[in-house]
Amino acid sequence: MFAALGDETRLRLVGRLSTEGPLSIARLSEDAPVTRQAITKHLEALEGAGLVRGTKHGRERIWDLEPRRLMAARHALEQISHQWDAAIGRLRAFVETE
Amino acid sequence: MFAALGDETRLRLVGRLSTEGPLSIARLSEDAPVTRQAITKHLEALEGAGLVRGTKHGRERIWDLEPRRLMAARHALEQISHQWDAAIGRLRAFVETE
DNA sequence: GAGATATGCAACTTTTTGGTTGCGTGTTTG
DNA sequence: CAAACACGCAACCAAAAAGTTGCATATCTC
């Protein structure tokens, strides 16, 4: 999942989908600095990570976020946050003893 | 940051540092499937993302998590979670109307 | 039905990335 | 002091990733 979101183009795509809702490839490609094909590939990468889903609708393919996986991802992020909290606590204690 | 954590080796490194505390390159390389040099590169990549910091201590270089950035990262993750929450709400509503 | 749209498929090029190897240097330690 | 240890630097390699181009196909729309 981190790898999927690690590319700036892909992160932007997820961002747009989360704020603007379902969008077609053409729409998502419009103001992108890369080709439509590149966008398609990125969307498929995101789909591979389960973060996004595309459904054919007439002649266009509409992409949207995948709620289930997104929830799971959220959960994972929270877990990591907790793990980090512990580490941050340790670091703070360490700094104070210096 | 996502890119930094997007590599499995790097994610493992962060995981070890968060649970085992400060470690030298040699330690971190011991049970890794790759060379010490590869580990060094990954640590420097993580350092570039600000997630980790290495300080020389005698003949060895000890690496540890960077609390400030880690907090910032936590914050960013929470922001994204919130953004996703809104999207998930929208998606749920959409499903219900079908 | 013809032209415009929206997309898919496939081959190919170019960067980037992850990884290695060889060697040199500063520190410990016996 | 000599050997062992921990590491840095630099060149190099291979595979994966990002991106493009050209063309084909399915759908709309007038």
Commentary on this structure:
The structure is a homodimer. Helices cover about 70% and strands about 15% of the residues of chain A. In chain A, a hairpin with a 2-residue loop joins strand 2 and strand 3. By secondary structure, chain A is α+β, with helices and mostly antiparallel strands. Chain A has a single domain (about 1-95), classed as Arc Repressor Mutant, subunit A, CATH 1.10.10. The longest helix of chain A has about 30 residues, at about 65-95. Chain A has a 3-stranded antiparallel sheet with strand order 1-3-2. The first copy, chain A, contains 5 helices and 3 strands, in the order H-H-E-H-H-E-E-H. Chain A binds a DNA duplex (30 and 30 nucleotides) through helix 4.
In short:
Two copies of one chain form a homodimer. Chain A is α+β, with helices and mostly antiparallel strands.
Q: Biggest interface pair, residues each?
A: A-B, 33 and 32 residues
Distance N to C terminus of chain A: 38 Å
Spatial ordering of strands, largest sheet of chain A: 1-3-2
Number of helices of chain A: 5
Largest sheet of chain A: 3 strands, antiparallel
Question: What's the pLDDT, averaged over the residues of chain A?
Answer: 89
Task: Tell me the number of strands of chain A.
Answer: 3
State the oligomer. Answer: homodimer
Low-confidence stretches of chain A: none
Helical percent range of chain A? 55-70%
What class do helices, strands and sheet pairing of chain A give? Answer: alpha+beta
Number of domains of chain A: 1
User: What is the overall shape of chain A?
Assistant: elongated
SSE sequence of chain A, one letter per element: HHEHHEEH
CATH class of chain A: Mainly Alpha
- Give me the Rg of chain A, rounded: 18 Å
